[in-house]
Amino acid sequence: MTVHDATPTEVLPPRQMDKHDLLVAGFLARYTGQSFTAYETDMRLWFQWCRGYGLDPIFGIERAHIELWARYLEIERGNAPATVHRRLVCLRVFFWLMQEDGVIDKSPAVNVKMPRWTTDLTKKIGLERQDFQSLMFTARNSTPADEALVAMLGLLGLRVSEACSINVEDFQDTERGHRVVRFTGKGTKSASIPLPVPVLRSMERAAGERRRGPLLLRRDGSRMTRRSADRVVKRLARHAGINKPVSCHTLRHTFVVAALDAKVPL
């Protein structure tokens, strides 16, 4: 089993890897979380494309090969410009590291043309107060887990990965008279946030009689994931009659906009 045929958690011990496997595994070992998952997929696609044309994915690669791979991503795979840009950034970092380590003489990705794209700012605007109230009402009438998810995203400002990672035991402590929730934030930084009463009540309803384990559960009893949480939010938005794109990150923007409207200092 090799790096490009399996997830990095399944790779062979270093002494049993070939040269390519070891170099890729060493590169991926620098990352965790979503960055790790994205770069692992990018490297897998690069290796598959190269070997489909009889190319060595690391040695003897020229800039033209990477430019052609970018066109393959755009035309044949239908990747959006932002996705192509990120995949090219992955190769830039990988080949830069190979150059720094003396594995290759010069990175072939330095002068690769990066695609341009514009950001749809409408997707970064939070919900208006009435729409968010409708969403909360719909979530409250759905399931306790759905209500807690929307409350933590829209009233607490958590990232979806942070909300999904919370366990029942993570919000049982009290600091300075306030119940707090503890979690690991972006960059593996530990954080704790005081819980407003409406958020706390929704989390307690989601926990029920349980004292340990994942707070947000799917219908099959497993932990809610980023993707399943996104499906929940989109479903609730449709049922609430909200006629605009809504995602988990929309609710994070909603929290920020509402805080600024309430004169909370930036």
What's the pLDDT, averaged over the residues?
87
End-to-end separation in angstroms reads 51 Å
How much strand content do the residues show?
Answer: 5-15%
Write down the secondary-structure element order: HHHHHHHEEEHHH
pLDDT < 50 runs, ≥5 residues: 1-12
In terms of structural class, how would the helical and strand content be classed?
Answer: mainly alpha
Strand order of the largest sheet: 1-2-3
**Biggest β-sheet, characterized?**
3 strands, antiparallel
Oligomer: single chain
Shape descriptor: elongated
The tally of strands reads 3
Count helical runs: 10
Q: Using the CA coordinates, give the radius of gyration.
A: 22 Å
Give an account of the 3D structure.
The protein has about 270 residues and is mainly alpha-helical. The chain contains ten helices and three strands. A three-stranded antiparallel sheet has the order 1-2-3. The relative contact order is 0.10.
Gist?
Helices cover 49% and strands 5% of the residues.
Spell out the blueprint of helices and strands:
Blueprint: H1 19-28, H2 33-52, H3 63-75, H4 81-100, H5 129-140, H6 144-154, H7 160-165, E1 174-175, E2 178-184, E3 190-194, H8 197-207, H9 226-239, H10 248-261
Antiparallel strand pairs: 1-2, 2-3
Helix pairs in contact: 3-4, 5-6, 6-8
